[in-house]
Records
---
Amino acid sequence: MWTMSTTMAQASSRGPAADEAVAWPRWVPAVWVAFVSGALLLLDVVALPVWAAVVTAAAVALAAVSAVRFGAGPWVGGRVDRADLLTVVVLYAAVVGLFRLAFVGFTQANVVGLFLAFAAGLLVGTAGPIAYTTWVRHRPLSTLGLGLHRLPSTVALALLFAAVQFAVTLWGYRLPAAVEWVPLLVMSVVVGLFEAVFFRGFVQGRLEASFGIVAGVAGGAMLYAGYHVGYGMGVGELWFLLGLGVVYAVAYRLVGNVLVLWPLLTPLGAFFNHLQAGDIDLPWAAIAGFGDVLMVVGVVWWVAWRHQRRHQPQPASGDAEPVGRADVRRHRHA
């Protein structure tokens, strides 16, 4: 049984607004699961610019139909949280700036500087949202998509999407020597964690809380595409990444848990792209560096989790809350 997570918007200056339950039939999440699976399968069929256009148009059409059928409330409404939005802007600018410094400023001519700036960007994008969520806003880690909530559905979808991704990318692919692909795989896993926490759990979640589902998915996808300028990518490459961002955002939105994307779906895709491009040459020692980043993130998460257990925070107004497949809410002003 699939479930969908939703961010409830409360829109009254006097207090929480009254919420009205709206029926959400079984076929709705099934349609979005089919959308993600179909989009991944199409990667091997059509040219990437065409793929991005088709995927984006299909997502807009499905969202429009859902809004008309079930009401626009949760899709386009929210309560603006200026502190959240300011934090999103600051952390996003820091991440892009550090990545730009690494890949455009230092480049591979200065490996130490490149890795330090890259690692700093990864840590800002993962530890930053965890610290802000836990100690500044006193929200549970589940609002970042971190936890074991909705685990059966999450695992099922993660395996389904990863299987499709593997089938259209790595199935039958002949790997080079281990020294050429193992460091790339480790890097893909670490960067995949950063992208899942920062862009899905944090950016998408905060935009959705302020502006609704559509803004969360669309804004998260656009910011995901845009951040790749930090890698030195041109504008022409961002169109495909926008479509990919929409697919990943929808996949995350189905369960509100980053495990639907990481450690399988997004690392597999990134790993294949790095192999195909062949423009990154990492030594074995890079594994230790990425391992250090992963360890620091793990320590920050563990400390935050311990803090959460001691204080047992409850989801605040505007945070994501789990609902059953038949329990989507439409808000109205009290």
---
Amino acid sequence: MRAQYHLRILIFISLIAVIFNNFCNAQDSLLLAKLKSIEWLEGPGTADIGSIAEITVPEGYLFTGREGTQVLMELYENLITDLELGYIQPENHDWYVVFEFEETGYIRDDEKSDLDADEIFTNIKEANEASNKERRKRGWSTLTAVDWFQRPKYDEATHNLEWAPRLIDENGLYTINYNTRILGRRGVMYVTFVITPDSLFDYLPEYKNLISNFVYKPGNTYAEYREGDKLAEYGLTALMVGGGAALAAKSGIFKWLWKIIIVFFAGAAGFLKKLFGKGKEKKNPYVS
């Protein structure tokens, strides 16, 4: 009897192991199927970012447009903003860049000399709590700003605003969202470079070179502003802490607050860990 009891226990444990393994394989298959549904442009080439801009995609890089970007953001456990227009990454998937555009109107840069980094950081942390509430509802790890990696700076020649908070999730994993806001005639392109802190210095020059090949299409550049064009209701400081969406939230226009306040991006590490569990072969999941 005792031997039969132990045998039943071993059979039960073995059955659970098989079910769990099949479940994990099914989950992996689902994730891979979603990846394979994405239409990729493999560099070298030129990619349209919506209808208002384009970027040169170098050899060894992958680009996808709006729909592919939204699939990836969901897989990476990042909130969809409905502003997504494009996503680019190297084939080794060590980092990625997201492009989003908001038609804010022309944003004047007269605050360029008055950017208070300490006050801005405090406001960013407060604004992000709304998106963390949504992350908790979905069972995702929250993201918290720790400190500045790059304090806010504005380049008058390119009309680019840059800043980079260092973030930590509930599992103690750090990531950096290196933000570039490229001002245009009718709005602003949100460009977010997502990378781990230990890799940033290695890849930051590569990112800078990549972004240097971003251009607004004719009629959309900041320099082409004309009298009578729509003007944004805020300047550079508000742009960093939610922009027009934050103003709308305060007025009670929107109910889905998390979508319109600061949304930090988690890295791809968590997603890749699901695909590349212990002992699995590390093939590139992004290309067939």
---
Amino acid sequence: MSRLSSVRTFLQACYSFSASAEGWLYGLASSANDALGQDLGALAVHFDASNPNRVTARAAASTRRIHGLHSLVDDVLGRLDRDYVQDSLGRMVATANSNRGPAQSAIVDYMAKVGARDMVALTAADPSGLGVIVLVHQSSACTLEASESTTLARLAMHISSAFQLRSEESDASEAAVFRPDGRLVRADDDALEGDSVAALRRAVLATSALRSNRGTAESALERLTSRVDAQWTVVSRFIEGSDEFVVARRNRPPVLQAPGMDALSIREREVVSFLALGHSQKAIAYELGLSPSTVRVLIARARLKLGARSGKSLARRLVRRAS
């Protein structure tokens, strides 16, 4: 998925807020299939894994006609064990054949029904266990290069960011409007100032680079983090008369609900919530639009406050408390 056009199309599908739930899922599946598919189609599922012992599907859409789609998806999700689910939530990008375990038979049965030998899976989950998975069917065993995995993981994080915006009743509010060259036109959010404006300006310029085919997809995506300063997301462009504008919207990430979290600052809670999902510090920095050093400091502070010896032990403790 290194072509700029593929990345641009995928991001457009992510931030398409006018589509219905199933229409949005279909757009994700279609754009992923165009970039990674082999004429076998793709499936996108809005899942609920808040109870990891019983994962359910809230909506699903496929790019190909599958008889009894919803029953098939419910059957597969219902056969996934708790360990498989928790591991999958933390692996934003995986292939079906690389994710072995007791639940593998459910995945193998699904692939047999759609005629696939493997699948590329993009998983976008929030700390509550809600999210979206996009499965792109493959005709042969698939191996992803490190650069491909990085690009796909970043796109999965954009799915998660867009999913959060779609889930909020206030998702129509605008934080700021910029010109494509990064100039701020207006800000409707009093908290938008200083460093946040500069960070948003960089994200706006990254969207302009994608749109005008400047540079590589990887370099543009690296700058276009799924959130900016852990508070905003650049979501769309519009034209008014002869002028073009870019819109950013307020989009704070959800946080894990667990005993002891009240002792942490809001930023610390946001960071450790994604740590509990199994995301790396580098991924968390991209998800929230923070520097890696800031993420390290926030995790260290949270460890001290909660008495954990390491980031991994902190993550395990939070998962246990939330269960």
